[in-house]
Structures are given as structure tokens and as C-alpha cells.
């Protein structure tokens, strides 16, 4: 078997995941989701931490089984250092540290946002350096120039809500189940995206803003339901399509501007919101119109997963970028 063989742990939010990679090839990628948060309409940090404790050992065992490797085959253990929920990060990092210490194997601390970007290298086609990446998730929206696996520069980011948060919060206003983003995406396929015009956040440079959209949707729905209590139900598909259209316009406007200004023709999409079908289609169309190469990971590597952590750890292993047992999880870790 090719080396290095790396076990990776992902526990930044509410998905518990473990993956095994050998020589840059993914052998297994196991994810356990947490259903406990559905009744609260959002992730409850304390409950997430407890669920990670329940899921982690079975998930690691299954990842090793599927990869057909034993603990003694491992060359390193990687974990998500941040950003994320502190309690969730602590569960994953303490497990990884203990596991690595017991096996006398090196430890690799991975930046969650870097991992989302490097998910593009798990399977072909793979972008060539340098490229521009739009990372969109529930907690982050960033434009990143990727010069190498370990050299990245954030040139734009949200000043308030992230794109994923805008999807989930507006979906909640529409009464859609949690998590709202996928439900909104499904309904949007059935609706007219230009039926209800909502404001596109205008920001200088390459930054993003989505709080204004959320507020506009809230007041619009309040006004319309006061006149017709059934307004949302009668217009759900068009409302979802219009909201999604506005979020996508906001994202692609800045993405396009950054690509043109920096002369980059290889564009990548990463993060949980990269699973949104409307965004994937719009970016693909943009690439066709402008002659840009577009890269979007497989669905399983868009949302939080340990496969992307393993891929990042592979690059760090090659560069000798190891951590020590004193490495602490950092919920506000920056991409540098």
C-alpha cells in the first residue's frame, strides 16, 4: 500500500466523520449526521458535542474497516483544528491526540476552510495552481486565491451573514424544515426566479453582505401575509426561486469581478453550499460563457467530511507540517 496512510477526523460542527487516505488516494470517508438538532431549527452546540462523543468511535472503526487497514498501518492522524464550534472541535481533537499518542504516530492539525478548498484534489478533474476559489458554507463566505496547497490568500469575505446562513434563515422564514437550504433549493427548481425582486447586497471590492436580503425577505413576507395569510403557501416555489436567484447573483458578481481583476481563468467552488444545484448550474453556465474552467467537488466532498481533512493532511505530511500534543482547537482559526 502506498504511503502515507492517514486517518482523518472531522468534528467542526454537527457532522462526525472519519476518513482514511493512502498516498493521496481516498480509501474511505464515513459521515454520521446528527438528527437531534432538527427539533430546534438549528445546531445546539452542547448537543452536538455529546453526539460527537457517541458517534466518533463507531465512525472511526467503520472508516478503518472500509479502508481495509489496521491501526498499525497508519502513518499519521489528522484532525480539524478550526474554525468551528469549540465543544465539537475539542471532542475530535482530543480523540485524535489520544489515538496518535497511543500509536506513537505524528499529529496533523488541519484548517477546516483550507480543507474545503483542497477537496478539489480528491478526485479528477483537479484545478491547476493558481486558481480562484469561492468557499460558501453555513458559517463562511470567502474568495480565496489558491497559489499552492499551503499558500492561500483571502481577498474577499462576508461582512455579516454567510451565504449558507442566508439560505437557512430565509428558508426558516418560509416555514421550511431544518436544514432549510436543501429544501429551499428543491422548491426553487419549481419556481420563477424573477417573480419577486430582492436586493442584491452591494459591497466594494470582493466582500459580501447577506443581512440586507434576510431583512428584506422578512419585511416583505410580513407585509404580504398581513394581506393574505396564505401568501407563502400559494407562492412558495416562486419565493424560493427568487431568494436563491438573489443569493447566486450576489456570489457570482463578486466571483466574476475577482477573476477578471486577477486574470484567473480556473475557478473553483467549495463548501456546503457548493451542493446547491442552482449555484452549480449558474457557475457552470458562467464558465461556458466566458471560457473559464470550472471545478466543483462531488457532492459527498462539499459538505463537512473527513475526506477533505485527509487530503489536506496529505499535503501537510509531504511538507512536514506536523502539530504537537499541545495544539489547541481554535473556533476562530483564520485561513492563512
TrEMBL record:
Domain Gcp-like: 25-310
The gene coding this protein: tsaD
Cofactor note: Binds 1 Fe(2+) ion per subunit.
Residues holding substrate: 135-139, 168, 181, 185, 276
GO BP terms: tRNA threonylcarbamoyladenosine modification
Cofactor: Fe(2+)
CDD domains: ASKHA_NBD_TsaD_bac
Binding annotation for Fe cation: 112, 116, 304
UniProt family annotation: Belongs to the KAE1 / TsaD family.
Subcellular location: Cytoplasm
Statement: the UniProt record of this protein carries the keyword Zinc: no
Name this polypeptide is given: tRNA N6-adenosine threonylcarbamoyltransferase
Annotated GO MF terms: iron ion binding; tRNA N(6)-L-threonylcarbamoyladenine synthase activity
Amino acid at each position: 500500500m502506498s504511503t502515507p496512510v492517514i486517518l482523518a477526523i472531522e468534528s467542526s460542527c454537527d457532522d462526525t466523520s472519519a476518513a482514511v487516505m493512502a498516498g493521496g488516494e481516498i480509501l474511505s470517508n464515513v459521515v454520521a449526521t446528527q438528527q437531534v438538532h432538527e427539533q430546534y431549527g438549528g445546531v445546539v452546540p452542547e448537543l452536538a458535542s455529546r453526539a460527537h462523543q457517541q458517534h466518533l468511535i463507531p465512525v472511526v472503526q467503520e472508516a478503518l474497516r472500509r479502508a481495509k487497514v489496521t491501526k498499525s498501518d497508519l502513518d499519521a492522524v489528522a484532525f480539524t483544528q478550526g474554525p468551528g464550534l469549540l465543544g465539537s472541535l475539542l471532542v475530535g481533537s482530543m480523540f485524535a491526540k489520544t489515538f496518535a499518542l497511543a500509536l506513537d504516530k505524528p499529529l496533523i492539525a488541519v484548517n477546516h476552510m483550507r480543507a474545503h478548498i483542497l477537496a478539489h484534489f480528491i478526485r479528477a478533474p483537479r484545478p491547476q495552481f493558481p486558481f480562484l476559489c469561492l468557499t460558501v458554507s453555513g458559517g463562511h463566505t470567502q474568495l480565496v486565491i489558491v497559489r499552492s496547497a499551503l499558500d492561500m490568500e483571502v481577498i474577499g469575505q462576508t461582512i455579516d451573514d454567510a451565504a449558507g446562513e442566508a439560505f437557512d434563515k430565509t428558508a426558516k422564514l418560509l416555514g421550511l424544515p431544518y436544514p432549510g437550504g436543501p429544501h429551499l433549493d428543491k422548491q426553487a427548481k419549481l419556481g420563477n426566479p424573477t417573480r419577486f425582486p430582492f436586493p442584491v447586497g452591494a459591497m466594494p471590492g470582493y466582500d459580501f453582505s447577506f443581512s440586507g436580503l434576510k431583512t428584506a425577505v422578512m419585511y416583505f413576507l410580513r407585509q404580504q401575509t398581513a394581506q393574505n395569510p396564505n401568501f407563502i403557501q400559494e407562492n412558495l416555489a416562486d419565493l424560493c426561486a427568487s431568494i436563491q436567484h438573489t443569493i447566486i447573483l450576489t456570489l457570482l458578481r463578486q466571483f466574476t469581478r475577482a477573476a477578471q481583476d486577477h486574470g484567473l481563468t480556473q475557478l473553483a467552488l467549495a463548501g456546503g453550499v457548493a451542493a446547491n444545484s442552482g449555484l452549480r448550474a449558474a457557475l457552470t453556465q458562467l464558465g461556458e460563457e466566458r471560457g473559464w474552467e470550472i471545478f466543483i467537488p462531488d457532492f459527498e466532498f462539499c459538505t463537512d467530511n473527513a475526506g477533505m481533512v485527509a487530503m489536506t493532511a496529505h499535503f501537510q505530511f509531504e511538507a512536514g507540517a506536523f502539530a504537537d500534543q499541545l495544539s489547541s482547537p481554535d473556533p476562530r482559526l483564520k485561513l492563512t
